[in-house]
Amino acid sequence: MARVVLGLIGFGTVGSGVVQLLSHQKSLNLKKIAVLDSNKERAVKTVCPVTTNVNEIIEDPEIEIVIEAMGGEHPALEYIRGALERRKHVVTANKEVLAKYGPELFALARQKGVAIFFEASVAGGIPLISTMNKGLEANEIAAVTGILNGTTNFILSSMESKGESYDAALKQAQQLGFAEADPTNDVDGHDVAYKLSILSALAYERFIKPQDIFREGIRNVTAQDMAHAKEFGYRIKLIGTSRLAKDVTSGDSACDVRVHPMLVPLDHPLANVSGSSNGILVNGHAVGEILMVGPGAGSLPTASAVVGDTINLASALQLPDFATYFQPNIRSEWGNVVSVGSWSCPFFLRILVSDTAGVIGQIGTILGAHKISLASIVQKGVQKDEHGASAEIIIMTQSTKEQTLRDAIAEMQKCSFFKSMESLFRVFEAPV
Amino acid sequence: MARVVLGLIGFGTVGSGVVQLLSHQKSLNLKKIAVLDSNKERAVKTVCPVTTNVNEIIEDPEIEIVIEAMGGEHPALEYIRGALERRKHVVTANKEVLAKYGPELFALARQKGVAIFFEASVAGGIPLISTMNKGLEANEIAAVTGILNGTTNFILSSMESKGESYDAALKQAQQLGFAEADPTNDVDGHDVAYKLSILSALAYERFIKPQDIFREGIRNVTAQDMAHAKEFGYRIKLIGTSRLAKDVTSGDSACDVRVHPMLVPLDHPLANVSGSSNGILVNGHAVGEILMVGPGAGSLPTASAVVGDTINLASALQLPDFATYFQPNIRSEWGNVVSVGSWSCPFFLRILVSDTAGVIGQIGTILGAHKISLASIVQKGVQKDEHGASAEIIIMTQSTKEQTLRDAIAEMQKCSFFKSMESLFRVFEAPV
């Protein structure tokens, strides 16, 4: 078999791993690597020529597959688009570009008769994309739920195991290379939102606009929250989910797509996905529930997905018109989301109230008036400050619609006993 | 797209699930079902004609894909072979036929230019085959290890949670339909051995003859063993593994392939795979470790894998010569295995000795002479019977070569203090 000629764009963490793994693949010929700065020291040595002119890859008629491993929105988008327009197949790890421009890019690929492979864009080395795309082909997917960001899982795991603050855990993650100097993309949930858009496209045939996805990060999670959660039998994890729902107003099918911290029961497998690992539950109507756990990031695990895609693509290249087989059924319009308030789950609240008799009764009355059932309500202790004595109350509700809970909270906040809302967490229940 | 015409052989548990799921697939046309007994009541209704003459499927030129869901060695082997010889693609859930005749059948498929899809043959609904075959394509697999049989996992889980005997748990599993009337295939590890042969073919390109696989079932596991294991922080699971090893005599690559009960640390994910679920760890040189957990058996989960395969196959049928893309790299010769004695792990022993002073010292001396380090040695209690007083001793060793341990045990058995070997379990360590 003739060797398939490749071009690589990006020679950072992922690109270095790709170069390393490709060196063992005799049927693949890496012809050129495009980088932004040709003088930068690289982690991996290669005899492959390096250029700062990406057109030497995109416009080279000999190159059949372009691997995009630079990340970020621009100019990666333009490079991917340019490669597809020149009828080159693309392998990419770029969740941001796919989430923001997926409908356009997959339509372009179909039009040009080429394929986009993107196993590395979600869950690093875990073969989640091929599982959703091919392995569970006979299933209608009811939900995809899990821990999809290694950085935040590392931070939350350290906070819990060492009892340390978010800031201390973040700093350590940065020193160890698990978090970037500007951690916004990870800790505020953007990265998970991109991945949920891609998973929604595979599960429900439509990408979700990242700005439509409800997003709450981990900046406000405290060591105290961790300790309280543990006392109640839970662990705090940043959970992303995309579930099939019905839009109540239109009746159309829509998705409940969201990323936020959740209290996960300690005996649930997701609670035991620690450090920088990822763990994902997929619920299909025929198979039931599948769990996949593995390294969600890192040079070689991510490169494992990129190079796996490349090998699969290259071995299919000899088939005429094979690309249609690899074009997932994704519609060109964006998907709809339901309001975050329309979904139900149990809630965990920590509030400060004035330390006066009858407060618990008043809270119970307000919640009851909203038909919210309590699982437990506990007063944790009394503290004194310049505003008088405050009591800390922890409330765990039964499953209730989020909008109903919000209405009840708004009512409590009007009461004279109410001092402040310290924390509000959603509680994980098995999806569906 | 023209509808792809299918024939189904077998209308039992798996076949019924297949019929049910196929009814939602508009691009697939199930033309006929072959059964052994046409008068039998079926769980699922279908308008599809049913025949007792399998040749109406195998010899029908219109049928492109034959789904074999009858199980067992004969006549399933002959039907699969007959379908391949007539250039029909085959989707099968039959681990026994693949494990025993894999080299011949895959060679025949290559020769005839057709594909064999077999996702359902291992781990039921978990897409493990496609993950090994495509998802982890860039990896050299170091080990595949896990809980591969739902029946035995159900029995062991009930024994532990209810403290009941093997016989009681088996009986209950039979009543609930989780175990067959003759449970040999499951409880003696044959089923796992077949699956390990198939996984070895995917990981190391060679099937392993089932009779070459070291096999120890769960018949001798007692509730007492379970309780002792728990006390030491372990849970007993039936673990199958195939690991790349070196044959010390020839220097050739060979596999360590085996199925036996093991003590799994309680905090390891495999310890928490309960009931009839399966859980598998795959270790790849690039990705590290991937865990997959899900339903390992059952009508719809297994049918999910069968129908997923069928959809993937059918959508590729329009590509000329596509079958090579789906022919895994499997050599036609059988793989070699290393002796079970050549692998190392920690061991858990429970022995009865005469209740005399200095016995623990003597045991320690014998183990020490064989350079076996102890993790712990504990006397659990003294019991009296017609042969005098006996003490129960529990020994946990550090990792040691199994042959070395066997030599040491043989030496102990010659000593006057030795009464009987009550249990011997290998202890799970993370593979590689």
Q: Ranges of chain A with pLDDT <50 over ≥5 residues?
A: none
CATH topology of the largest domain in chain A: Dihydrodipicolinate Reductase, domain 2
In angstroms, what separates the terminal alpha carbons of chain A?
A: 47 Å
Write down the oligomeric state. homodimer
Second-tier CATH architecture of the largest domain in chain A? 2-Layer Sandwich
Quantity of strands of chain A, as a count: 18
Our Rg estimate of chain A from Cα atoms comes to 24 Å
Tell me the domain tally of chain A: 3
Mean pLDDT of chain A: 94
Secondary structure: helix percent of chain A: 25-40%
Note down, in words, how this protein is organized.
The structure is a homodimer of 432-residue chains. The radius of gyration of chain A is 24 Å and the shape is elongated. Chain A has 14 helices and 18 strands. In chain A, strands 7, 8, 9, 10, 11, 12, 14, 15, 16 and 18 form a ten-stranded mixed β-sheet that branches. A six-stranded parallel β-sheet of chain A has the order 3-2-1-4-5-6, sandwiched between helices. A two-stranded antiparallel ribbon of chain A has the order 13-17. Chain A has three domains: 4-127 and 300-326, 3-Layer(aba) Sandwich (Rossmann fold), CATH 3.40.50.720; 130-295 and 336-340, Dihydrodipicolinate Reductase, domain 2 (2-Layer Sandwich), CATH 3.30.360.10; 343-427, Alpha-Beta Plaits. The longest helix of chain A has 18 residues, at 95-112. Chain A starts with a strand and ends in a 5-residue tail after the last strand. Chain A has 432 residues and is α/β, with parallel strands linked by helices. Chains A and B meet through α5, β12 and α11 of A and α5, β12 and α11 of B.
